[in-house]
């Protein structure tokens, strides 16, 4: 295993990565200041760099992907509005209902095919207060997750991204990308992140997933939107002080850990193909486009499978009664994948 403490193969998530010695060295050298007062030079450098990489005017460093999405939603909606997102999106499933509690918005759910929404379905889901005799909420923001986590780590085709952004602008909605793993999508499809995000108003990008930083996400968008997000970040408790030590980890990740995401994708593919060949399990290989492998098992046996793998030193996550997830990341090597394949084989 690569620079990873312990002898387990931890495939629960790409959030489990730990800062490597080189990243820690960069963190220890960081020049810092009080970022709430706006004078941490390392945070400013990270924000400027991320805005440029995504082709946007401005950026804001926030503690987590969840807060990044929450801040984006709060900055671009009013209470009583409605957001439109895919039925298994992280914003809907895994953020504690924050959209409702923190922004006072309802949600219109769009079905996805491997997590990917059809622009026509998105258009159908937009409801407007105006012209509804006051019956409808005001659909005002469309959120797209790329890669789609519950879709299997799938990537939106570029034309679908562009078409959904066009639906947003045709319907006077803002458009947001939950780009927690946008660099996985970029590496897998060979399309620059700035091109993927070209027509979108905001993007949240995680540094603490495949990119390997211990903490942090960045929201990018127009200066005016980021100014509003800055106030909401403060209200949500996300104003941080000498946080350049963390921004330095982010800068290190941007310099060193983007191109290598392709290795995670190859290892996920190898794992997926081996598991799919085993009679007791199923993997939809079409879904395996980046660093995730969703494994289907017999109804009711998912927890048991996770325990059996764990006994063999391989950690995975239960998704529901009949599926579990394995995610590759920068600490996972080819040997770890061989060991994981053997663990699945003997857990049938
Ligand atoms: N995803 C985590 C869990 O919360 C499910 C994981 O292990 O995959 N957007 C997307 C698409 C995500 O997958 C995640 C984290 C987030 C946002 C939130 O990021 P954090 O954990 O930093 O709040």
What does this structure look like?
The chain is 40% helix and 18% strand. It has 348 residues and is α/β, with parallel strands linked by helices. It has two domains: 21-256, Type I PLP-dependent aspartate aminotransferase-like (Major domain) (Aspartate Aminotransferase, domain 2, 3-Layer(aba) Sandwich), CATH 3.40.640; 260-345, Aspartate Aminotransferase, domain 1. The strands form four sheets. A seven-stranded mixed beta sheet has the order 2-10-9-8-7-3-4, sandwiched between helices. Strands 11-14-13 form a three-stranded antiparallel beta sheet, with helices on one face. Strands 1-12 form a two-stranded parallel sheet. Strand 5 and strand 6 form a beta hairpin. Helix 3 packs across helix 10 (223-235). The longest helix is centred in the last third of the chain and has 16 residues, at 261-276. 51% of the residues are buried. It binds ligand TLP. Ligand TLP binds next to helix 3.
**Largest sheet: number of strands, sense, barrel closure:** 7 strands, mixed
CATH class of the largest domain equals Alpha Beta
Number of strands: 14
Q: What helical percentage do the residues reach? A: 40-55%
Q: What's the CATH architecture of the largest domain? A: 3-Layer(aba) Sandwich
CATH superfamily of the largest domain: Type I PLP-dependent aspartate aminotransferase-like (Major domain)
CATH-derived topology of the largest domain: Aspartate Aminotransferase, domain 2
Give the termini separation: 25 Å
SSE pattern, N- to C-terminal: EHHEHEHHEEEHEHEHHEEHHHEHEEEH
Could you write a compact summary of the structure shown?
The protein has 14 helices and 14 strands. It is an alpha/beta fold and 348 residues long.
């Amino acid at each position: 295993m690569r620079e990873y403490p312990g002898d387990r193969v931890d495939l629960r998530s790409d959030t489990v990565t730990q800062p490597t010695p080189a990243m820690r060295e960069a963190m220890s050298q960081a020049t810092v200041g009080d970022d709430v007062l706006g004078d941490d030079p390392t945070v400013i450098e990270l924000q400027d760099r991320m805005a440029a990489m995504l082709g946007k005017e401005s950026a804001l460093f926030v503690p987590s992907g969840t807060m990044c999405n929450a801040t984006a939603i709060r900055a671009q909606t009013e209470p009583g509005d409605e957001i439109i997102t895919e039925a298994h999106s992280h914003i809907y499933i895994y953020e504690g209902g924050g959209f409702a509690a923190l922004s006072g918005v309802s949600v219109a759910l769009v079905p996805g095919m491997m997590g990917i929404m059809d622009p026509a379905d998105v258009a159908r889901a937009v409801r407007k207060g105006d012209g509804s005799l006051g019956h409808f909420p005001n659909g005002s923001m469309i959120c797209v997750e790329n890669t789609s986590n519950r879709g299997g780590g799938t990537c939106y085709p570029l034309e679908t991204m562009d078409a959904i952004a066009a639906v947003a602008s045709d319907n006077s909605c803002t458009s947001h990308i939950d780009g927690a793993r946008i660099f996985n999508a970029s590496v897998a499809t060979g399309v620059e992140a700035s091109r993927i995000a070209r027509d979108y108003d905001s993007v949240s990008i995680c540094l603490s997933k495949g990119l390997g930083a211990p903490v942090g996400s960045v929201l990018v968008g127009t200066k005016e939107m980021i100014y509003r997000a800055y106030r909401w970040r403060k209200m949500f408790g996300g104003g941080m002080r000498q946080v350049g030590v963390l921004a330095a980890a982010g800068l290190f990740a941007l310099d060193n850990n983007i191109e290598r995401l392709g290795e995670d994708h190859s290892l996920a593919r190898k794992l997926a193909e081996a598991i799919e060949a085993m009679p007791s399990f199923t993997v939809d290989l079409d879904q395996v486009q980046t660093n995730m492998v969703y494994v289907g098992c017999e109804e009711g046996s998912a927890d048991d499978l996770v325990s059996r793998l764990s006994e063999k030193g391989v950690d995975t996550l239960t998704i529901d009664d009949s599926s579990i997830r394995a995610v590759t990341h920068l600490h996972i090597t080819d040997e770890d994948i061989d060991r994981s394949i053997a663990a699945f084989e003997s857990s049938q």
